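Handout, page 2. Input:
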Amino acid sequence: MAGKFADETASTLHLPLRTFSLKELWAKEPPEDAGDQSLDDYMLKATQNMWLDDYHAFDDFRHKYWAEHRRAPYLTPPTRAAWDFGKTISRPDRDDAARKVQVFRSWFRDQFFHGSQPLFVMPIENVGPRYRDDPPK
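Output:
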């Protein structure tokens, strides 16, 4: 579906279409900071350890909710898992994660934004029905 969308978008906007793999580009020309790590290995902790910010973004809400109701708010299972994980991350680990995200951002810009303004179509996941009572696979 993403491929068809990219083809139609490129045709409509009269743009050249280039397909690529970020993982393959990273493997060929990784940033110095990454050493021999794959893109997935380099970014895994970086993306996970940014959850500290998400957790603390709701500190004021949790405090006010507790003050008013004398109990913690209801959390959906995904939110509870994210907050439980987020509160275990140390500030130095979060700061290292932010540094790695910045390294990735600089590498990405160097790869694609030199003299042009590309349009990216990036499929994030395979989309399909999601039934409420079926746990994710």
